[in-house]
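Reviewer 2 asked us to include a model.

Predict the structure of this chain.
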Amino acid sequence: MIRTIIFDMDGTLVDTELAAAKAVEGCFSAWNHRVTEDDANFVTGRTWEKALEFLFSKYPPPVSKRAATDEILETYRKKIETDLIEVPGARDCVRDLAAEFPLALVSGSHRREILTILDRLGIRDAFRVILGAEDYPLSKPAPDGFQKALGMLSADPASTLVFEDSAAGIEAGRAAGLHVCVITSTNHFGHATDRGHFFVPDLRGVNRAWVKALKLPANSG
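Predicted model (structure tokens):
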């Protein structure tokens, strides 16, 4: 039986992954680097630090890494502030589930972006725990963020469901021993997401009754 629920944010509650890829492509193009589509999409499911460390190693920016990071993140923030796309059903889903289950949010984004987005959606208060990239040591696919959230909620991984969208997030969930439900409609780049336990196109119709009706696998790892 599910007793605790964790959400990823990017690609799960809001469709920000195209905005992230466009911010990367736009900034590197201005620096005379043509970033491949696969490399631009490397940001999916990872912290900005991990993604940009990889990109800077392949495409050295003409300014300091700190300045380049600031420019990319500011470009991304402007995109999500003006063009935030809610995953269908996200607000209703979170509100309904929060009425019965302890909820946590574990994201590879920074807390500043997380709180901006949750406030735009009006659901910040639904989460008992909110963890951003600065709150745990290793990014997905490592399970650190999920494990920290479990500890803060005194939750059993075997009775915890996580909503994810990326291959890195799915692997992190499985490594933490969670039951993983994959949001499929935001997989714009064809990432392998077949290792989830459950699959839904978006969050419409995902509510308390839906969660209680899940047939859980014996082993979620």
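The beta strands are 4-7, 103-106, 129-131, 160-164, 179-183, 198-200. The mean pLDDT is 92. We have added this to the supplementary material.
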